[in-house]
Hints:
Layout: H1 9-22, H2 26-43, H3 68-76
Helix pairs in contact: 1-2
Amino acid sequence: xxxxxxxxxxxxxxxxxxxxxxxxxxxxxxxxxxxxxxxxxxxxxxxxxxxxxxxxxxxxxxxxxxxxxxxxxxxxxxxxx
Length: 81
């Protein structure tokens, strides 16, 4: 597919020199660069946690409003010494 892209003169000159040095075309250089950049962006998209809910009425009143240390104590209160 053909398309037109505006590239700064300085960048195009660098691309021409790189293509000549590597014995390739500007088209091949641009396609390779786009493939690498798009692959990197896909890898770096990051993890998105989806919202999950359960039927119920929220937290047990025994732990509502308490911090993690209090909740941990309740979880482990009958275990160990």
